[in-house]
Write a structure and sequence with these properties.
The chain is α+β, with helices and mostly antiparallel strands. 36% of the residues lie in helices and 19% in strands. The relative contact order is 0.08. Bound molecules: adenosine-5'-diphosphate and magnesium ion. It is found in: Cytoplasm.
């Protein structure tokens, strides 16, 4: 026989647990939501693997989740008949944190005075259970396996892993049993009505049946277990959508946008998508992976099928196809023409919906733009086809105000103004004191002030909006010639030109080969001179960004 073996937690896990155990966070209810969501994921994974190996499901109970309170033992168990974990999976999944955002989340948690609130806002998965339990015992059998393993921990610096006793192995025929030895002050979670209340609040739309197994009497189902996206819009209330969003996205905020529809025709599929109202910690992870889940006829297939372009990777939700083959492999997803069609159609719908929101619900749109604007702007250089639409969606800080759209800009053009002007830089403050703005200011011409790193990229291609070219004030010649001055202290055109010719000769002489040309310009009114890039040269801000990245 193999005996128990102790293993340390990964440093981040130990740190997180320390925070959990000592947190004063009062909304401890969420632990149950986290465990149920993991159980539901495990049932999804089982159904997916059973497409190729049907015996995995037919050999035992159907995928379901049981909640078992035991007042005599002071334990609460969450049991699923899902995919289960083998020994290595128990060690890897419950001893380390794989989620890429968690590290930055942890540092925020440690910094913030209200760290406790962040726990509620973002969730901490399995480890949330240590808020209510002082000992957790996980017994698991991977589907199709003869081995059953037990992981146990008191939440300190490590855990134990051991083979299950014969009795425990018999109890767990497939899947995972998570037994919480409840802390004294968490005894309320043994009450049936408490459990029902929490499940109704957080987990009602979990697709698999959740059964409450009372100490006396028959188990009974306490959730509605429907795939919400398959239901008709008219049956659903905003509350239902909020819960579905939080469940599907593992989020705690309100959705700022909800898009629910069914496409019929050449292809049939249901779409339920959301835009979060707050920024997750892993938004800028390098892989730029989307999180929309692909289902085929109610069966979960993949959550990394790239159902939307990367610049919409903040959108969460589900697309459920009626036509794709169930046994589609994850590799085949990449080149599937039906899926490409769905992707195209849904992308257009999402962008149209964002546009409508921008017109009808400024508040909601602003939340999305503030959190994800820099991501959406990646589309300006990646999605040529939709560039105009994305430009119309974009909002800018300009010399005339905040959250300005290009439509507003173009509506407010000065007489004789034929171009849209912008300036790229590090901060709004520094841009506002940039001498390159002076001439525009003297004419009351609005200038877009672009400070996101991504701005240097999309502006490097020629662009126009409503027939008006976009033009950088730090590049080539800017001719404000016909736009009248609004500042009457400025000198007349003739005076200026006469002065300029002599001045230029002197400067050219002094600088010699170090510059390609010296020109008089209408860019400045109060400063004497500035350095600019040539008309075809790279924008100076882009040059700096590229230099930073060693390209
Ligand atoms: P997340 O669910 O975001 O991945 P968690 O901390 O909730 O993070 O869970 C960590 C991992 O542990 C899961 O990704 C999964 O691989 C594994 N896991 C947790 N609970 C179960 C379960 N009931 N059945 C199978 N695997 C599980
Ligand atoms: Mg989880």
């Amino acid at each position: 026989t193999v005996s128990a073996e102790s293993q340390p937690f990964q440093a981040e896990v130990a740190e997180l647990l320390h925070l959990m155990v000592h947190s004063v966070y009062s909304e401890t209810d969420i632990f149950l939501r986290e465990l149920i969501s993991n159980a539901s994921d495990a049932c999804d994974k089982l159904r997916y693997e059973a497409i190729a190996r049907p015996e995995l499901i037919t050999d035992g109970a159907p995928p379901e989740i049981r909640i078992v309170p035991d007042k005599k033992a002071d334990t609460l168990s969450v049991v699923d008949t899902g995919i289960g974990m083998d020994r290595q999976e128990l060690i890897d999944n419950l001893g380390t944190i794989a989620r890429s955002g968690t590290k930055s989340f942890l540092s925020k948690l440690t910094e913030a005075k209200d760290g406790a609130n962040l726990i509620g806002q973002f969730g901490v998965g399995f480890y949330a259970a240590f808020m209510v339990a002082d000992r957790i015992v996980v017994t698991s059998r991977r589907a199709g396996s003869d081995d059953v393993w037990v992981w146990s921990s008191e939440g300190g610096s490590g855990f134990e892993i051991a083979p299950a006793s014969e009795e425990a192995a018999k109890r767990v025929a497939r899947g995972t049993e998570i037994m919480l030895h409840l802390k004294k002050d968490a005894a309320k979670y043994l009450e049936a009505y408490e459990i029902e209340r929490i499940v109704r609040e957080y987990s009602d739309n979990i697709q698999f049946p959740i059964l409450l197994v009372p100490e006396e009497g028959e188990p009974r189902q306490i959730n509605s277990a429907s795939a919400l996206w398959q239901r008709s819009k008219s049956d659903l209330k905003p509350e239902d959508y909020k819960q579905a969003y939080q469940q599907i996205a593992g989020a705690f905020d309100e959705p700022a946008m909800t898009l629910h529809y069914r496409a019929e025709g050449r292809q049939s599929y249901a779409v339920l998508l959301f835009a979060p109202s707050t920024k997750p910690f892993d938004l800028f992870q390098v892989e730029r992976k989307g999180k929309v889940k692909l289902y085929v006829r109610r069966v979960f297939i993949a959550d990394d099928a790239e159902l939307l372009p990367a610049y919409l990777r903040f959108i969460r939700g589900v697309i459920d196809s009626e036509d794709l083959p169930l046994n589609i492999s994850r590799e085949m997803l990449q080149n599937n023409p039906q899926l490409a069609q769905i992707r195209k159609a849904v992308t257009t719908r999402v962008i149209n919906e964002l546009e409508t929101l921008g017109d009808k619900d400024q508040d909601a749109f602003t939340k999305i733009w503030d959190a994800f604007g820099p991501v959406i702007k990646e589309g300006l250089y990646e999605d040529f086809e939709r560039r105009d639409k994305l430009l119309a969606l974009s909002r800018f800080t300009t010399t005339a105000g905040e959250k300005r759209s290009l439509k507003q800009y173009v509506d407010d053009l000065k007489p004789n103004q034929t171009e849209v002007y912008y300036l790229v830089g590090d901060t709004i403050e520094r841009l506002k004191s940039n001498p390159k703005l002076e001439s525009a200011r003297a004419r009351g011409v609005e200038v877009l002030l672009l400070t996101d790193p991504v701005d240097a990229f999309w502006t490097s291609a020629p662009l126009e909006f409503g027939g008006k070219p976009l033009k950088s004030l730090s590049q080539g010649d800017v001719d404000f010639g016909l736009i009248p001055l609004t500042d009457d202290k400025a000198e007349t055109k003739d005076e200026r030109e006469a002065d300029a010719a002599t001045t230029i000769a002197v400067i050219k002489d002094a600088l010699g080969e170090r510059v390609s040309d010296v020109r008089a310009s209408q860019r400045l009114t109060a400063s004497a001179s500035c350095l600019v890039a040539g008309g075809d040269a790279r924008d100076r801000a882009l040059e700096r960004l590229l230099a930073q990245q060693n390209r």
